[in-house]
Write a structure and sequence with these properties.
The chain is of the alpha/beta class. The protein has twelve helices and 14 strands. Bound molecules: nicotinamide-adenine-dinucleotide (NAD). The site of nicotinamide-adenine-dinucleotide has 22 residues, from helix 4.
Length: 355
């Protein structure tokens, strides 16, 4: 019997609709050769929701997402929304959506495709073979800690983590490591911060349940340096909200193009899958956006739904299409045999995914 999944599509603004449409094309292609089926429902979030509902996150979008098996999201934002008050801004909608879904773990793989090592600003021998995963705590730490205040002569924020918050994110990292190279690097600033000292103790504790996984600790300043010096030493990087925000951006640039990297936000009621890039208003509507990050996000979604055969098909198709030399404009200077549009790239990957 075939399995049916209810997928909430939140296309968003800018290039969002273009890239999500291509991911849907690829999902439909794998559905045609496997025993899975998808029911899609479209919901508005971000600037497009402000235009229609005067709010960046309408209740019907929250309800729709919560009733789905997964949410596939494009991107939000654009210059026309930049001067809106905070409660109307597109990113307020995204932050609230993460909260509503309860997704406390942000997973960002940084994998380099052999054909695109030249796209990295680092030397080929440094980046060839990089395959790391940043597991970032997403709903705690200094971005949310109380008290926080901006006064005329000073301002302060609070970095706070509870044992429970550290435990649950550490578990996600160790579980991920079990299916990878079985190494977790926990990144903190325990030489200076009490909150990091607690982080270390709790991570050590969780590690006892995973004797197969090797755990090491690294200070965040050293981790930033090591990421650039020798990224291949990492398998899973486990870290808190602010350190993860910074390190995951650095890790993505090790790989090169922003148009290739997917992400998953999990641990809550429903998983949210999205490319790491934004809505790219500068290229929206031109048919030149790279849909691969969104297509790879759809593949992460399938893995979390335990549809590994379908996920393998997508990842294999992306590799094959890149190997064949097809490139969207952003990657046209890296061994391109043919430069293709957003929609042509989606069709090529869809075609290879059915083979
Ligand atoms: P961006 O990621 O949208 O764009 C940065 C650069 O990368 C641009 O030159 C863009 O053309 C290019 N780029 C991005 N994605 C691409 C793709 N798939 N293919 C080819 N090129 C691509 O970041 P930005 O310019 O700083 O922000 C633009 C808007 O996106 C802002 O409104 C910002 O708030 C929003 N944003 C949204 C998210 C999100 O929805 N999760 C994340 C970051 C930024």
């Amino acid at each position: 019997m075939s399995k049916r999944y209810k997928i909430a599509l939140i296309k968003g603004d800018g290039i969002g609709p273009e890239i999500v449409d291509e991911a849907v094309k690829v999902l439909d292609a794998v559905a045609s050769v496997t025993d899975i089926e998808f029911d899609y429902n479209d919901y508005l979030m971000g600037g497009c929701a402000v235009d229609v509902f005067d709010t960046p996150l309408p209740q019907e979008t929250i309800n729709g997402a919560l009733e789905s098996d997964a949410v596939l999201f494009g991107a939000i934002g654009g210059p026309q929304y930049d001067s809106l008050p905070k409660d109307k801004r597109p990113e307020t909608g995204l932050l609230q959506m993460r909260k509503e879904l309860g997704v406390f773990a942000n997973l960002r793989p940084a994998i380099i495709f052999d054909e695109l090592t030249a796209a990295s600003t680092l030397k080929e021998e440094v980046v060839k073979g990089v395959n790391l995963l940043v597991v970032r705590e997403l709903t705690g730490g200094i971005y949310f800690g109380q008290p926080r205040e901006k006064l005329p002569d000073r301002a302060y924020n609070t970095m706070v983590y509870t044992v429970e918050e550290i435990k649950r994110i550490a578990k996600v990292a160790f579980e991920q490591a079990l299916n990878r190279d079985k190494k977790v690097t926990s990144v903190d600033k325990a030489n200076v911060l009490e909150v990091s000292q607690l982080w270390r103790e709790v991570v050590e504790d969780v590690a006892k349940d995973y004797p197969q996984v090797h755990l090491e600790h690294m200070y965040v300043d050293n981790a930033a340096m090591q990421l650039i010096r020798d990224p291949k030493q990492f398998d899973v990087i486990l870290t808190g909200n602010i350190f993860g925000d910074i390190l995951s951006d650095a890790a993505s640039m090790v790989v090169g193009s922003i148009g290739l990297l997917p992400s998953a936000s999990v641990g809550g009621k429903v998983g949210l899958y999205e490319p790491i890039h934004g809505s790219a208003p500068d290229i929206a509507g031109q048919g030149i956006a790279n849909p691969i990050a969104t297509i790879m996000s759809a593949s992460m979604m399938l893995r979390d739904l335990q549809e590994h055969v379908a996920a393998d098909k997508i990842e294999h198709a992306v590799k094959e299409v890149l190997k064949e030399g097809y490139r969207t404009k952003d990657l046209s200077s890296f061994d391109a045999k043919e430069v293709v549009s957003t929609s042509e790239m989606g069709s090529l990957i869809a075609e290879y995914a059915t083979k």
